[in-house]
Amino acid sequence: MNASRYRMTWMNRRWRKKYKGQMKYFGLLDGETKTSSYQRCWRECQRWMRDVDASQAGSEQDAARQQWAPILNAVREAQQRTIDLHGDTEETRAIWQDLESTFVAKLIRPAISQGQGIAGDDAITSLIDDRLKQLQGLHWQPPATGSGNLVTPPKQASGTPPWEQEEEISGIHQLIEKFLTSVKVKRSERRAANLKQGIDEYLKTLPSDVSIDGFFSSDAMRSYRDAIEARELSASRKRDLVAPIAQFARWAHEGELIDVLPRIVSAEKMKVSVSTDRRANPYADGELRKLLKASSGRSRLYLLLALNCGFTQKDISDLKSPEVDLKKGQITRKRSKTGDHGNVPTVTWRLWPETLALLKEHVSGGDRVLVNEAGRPLVQEKDGKRTADAVKKAMDRLRTDTKRKDPITFKRFRPTAATKLHEGPHAKFTQYFLDQSPKSVADQFYVQPNQRQFNEAVSWLRTALKIDQLGE
């Protein structure tokens, strides 16, 4: 194949693409060559470029919103001056509606949705003032303070004034913003960012000017679901890209923002086929011992935190100083993934001597207990997507050191510890060890876990996993 046919650059046995000021590399899989890897890497590159486009589009809208803010404020001030001067009359409402339609609905909102900013605001501000004067002439009325001297004072309007009504949704992008804002308030910004990923991915498959009805079309949703299901993604990733669309539809329907719930959602078919085999995939005893023996320093600390406390990469990265008591040798916290769920317990794990020693050696002294060499979080995310993972890099180095063919999947250490605990005399603490929400009424409301017994369970786990033999 001629080099000119490649749309990426081949460098140091990997493909490279520069797009809109960003650089991305795509490496080879086992057994692949430059030629055989190109099509797969190009498909990955195209998905990455779409993500860059979506991210920049969101940034453009945020920038446009900031630039239009003074204009929107000028409209609101003009409307409020009219209300303060004349009160809530039919003429006041007519003036308010005209300003809202002329400047907000027809000018400001469309420009923001398209990411179009504005260089200066003096000219438009003057237009607002001129329009207000015209409207005051068309809808003349005396000031509210002097209307009592008139034979027939202005009639006060009835019903809820438009400025106190629920803001009218003018398009799908405004509806999406309203949905994500409600999620941020009721759940968390992180949850909203995760939902936004799925919605943004769905938007890429629709026309740029799609209507609200078009967005919630069952046919469009079905096509998107089928396309995601056909992609080479993990089952959980597919679910994360499809589920937000159904959740958004239910929220809009329950809030009476759409009249009909899409049939594909009401029929519970807006979902991907995820294997029902949820059995854990723990490391075998011999395999685990080999990895622990080969590890040292930070890589061993990460493994021990996963086995000692059931931590994931994110848990380790999010670990804060107030949660760690090095004198008592314990960590007290909620899981990062479910920390905003009210029924998830706050668990105290007694640290093994091996874990505590390494933690003392590598503690940062700052707010985050463990950081990378640059002093930044071990796991970094942007818009809900993981952009850096020092724990994974440590596992990749360990894989190289052990000449292991298969990747070292960090999330398998958590079920490895849980499975071992469940097989022993302290099985009742497995759910609590994993910091999962109580399943039964008794667990949730009546039974307070016994800390002494739980400490014994964690200590037993150290022996069962042969952590106490690492020095031998």
Structure explained in plain terms:
- Residues 144-159 have a biased composition (Polar residues).
- Pfam families: Phage_integrase.
- Residues 287-450 form the Tyr recombinase domain.
- One of its GO terms (biological process) is DNA recombination.
- Keywords: DNA recombination.
- This protein is mainly alpha-helical.
- Among the domains are: 172-267; 285-469, Orthogonal Bundle (hpI Integrase, Chain A).
- The protein is 53% helix and 7% strand.
- It has 18 helices and 8 strands.
- The protein has helices at residues 34-86, 90-113, 122-138, 172-186, 189-203, 212-215, 218-230, 235-254, 263-266, 285-294, 297-309, 313-318, 353-362, 390-401, 413-423, 430-433, 441-446, 451-464; strands spanning 9-11, 14-19, 22-27, 324-325, 330-333, 347-350, 379-382, 385-389.
- The chain has a 3-stranded antiparallel beta sheet, covered by helices on one side. It has a 3-stranded antiparallel beta sheet with strand order 4-5-6. A two-stranded antiparallel sheet has the order 7-8.
- Strand 2 (14-19) and strand 3 form a beta hairpin.
- The two termini are 56 Å apart.
- The model is unreliable at 440-447 (pLDDT under 50).
